[in-house]
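Board notes (copied after class):
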Amino acid sequence: MPTFPFESALSTDLESIRRQLRAELRTVTKTDDDGIAHEMVWIPRFTVPAGIIASEGDPWPSGDSIVTMGGFFIDRYQCHDPSTLIATSPKAVSQPGYAPASSLSQAAAAILANARTFYGVECRLPRLAEWAAVTLAAWLLEPGALRGNTAGAGRDHRDTDTASRKGLASGTFHLTGTGPNAFGIAGGPHDILGNVAEWLDDSAPCGRLTIRKTAAIADAGGISAADPSVTLDGIQDLDRWPATDGVILIEDEYIRYATFTDNLDGTAVLGGLTRGHMGSTAAIHADNAAVALLKDFCIVPGAMSMFVTGLDNVTDPVTFTVHDLKGTPTKSAIQAGDTICVHTERLTVTAVAGDAVTATRGSESTTPASHLDWSVALVRPSAGANIASTGLYGFIRTFRTDDPDLEALMVPALMQTTVIDDGTDEPGDRLDMVGLGGQTHAILRGGCPGGEVSPLPNIGHHRHGMSFVLTADTAAILLYGFRCVWSPV
């Protein structure tokens, strides 16, 4: 397998980052394992030192955080329906001049992305951190230039609604690669903003977002299905791995570790392993097998997220067990009177004894239901928590940015509650989490459809690719499309 191209020493100041991006960000034509050519863009790996970027008066990254980004290929164009090119190829194709695929659910988009392989390695949907790298690269290369919407089948919102200012129309969107240059990066990805909204690989069920960090097994003999420890190397962001009570995924096995020991040589030992965690099956894993740290956060300020077992019934009242609680700076424990959301049911907590919680069922006129073990649940915040609402703003208007890993995603911290455009103003970045409640939600980001003033999901103007939308993961809405990422790491 080839190594990453265009790699260089990591940059440490803003101008050197710009120079690196200008030198290394480029479009390449990659031919997949079935012989189909795709235009993709190499986003080089770069570092952003603490406080180097002033964002609306606040330094980013904050504190002493250092953010490492990039190191992957991403489609230059939003993927189009392969039936328009090769009827026998049920996969995502990235080429210019085609109508982008739309009316897709997140699951359907993921299947199409996975069907494309290079050197036997599947493509996938982009992750939040990867989209952040793309949009930050755009800002660094051309500060303030990236913006757009799709009113009138594609245009930069600063321009008049004339044919000369639009891309080539195809229904309510434009053909790939024909929209305004301000929708993307010169020589890089098109339609970062504008055109169809794009599914990401991430989901946030009940406000629980998983951030992945990579590593590999460093043991010549691999590990058995019963080994109580494992040595890792190639560890991404080693200093941000939990010192205790972390969860990793190796192939199909979830493993919980009790201790993390840094060997100070680029390797670390995970000890006190609980094998076959979360109902998975303990297995043998070879040396150099890929390891993913699953670092979970509750992204809802003032709330808590957890897994539950013992709710596979409609008993009322019910005592069940909570696992792997993830709190927030203002909420660190479950208390009597709290409301817990599991899927569409609400429960009211009456007693807590360790990890055993007793609650009454069917609160707020919801219907008691049986929930599979290891379902995700949310202890919702008390203020502004109208989770029954599926209207414009659901019940959450802020996103946690108090942790370096969350801050690195570059998600807007505050939702805009109004969008007003007289043709001259420029609305800021936007955060939207719709009807979050107890539902499983998938993530859309980047270019979003919409007119001058528009309700979800038809959001209007955005800048810097920072729009962020949570929506029902079963949704297959007219203007929901996708593009692919490929990385062998």
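Comment from the instructor: The chain has four helices and 33 strands. Helices lie at 14-24, 106-114, 128-141, 404-407.
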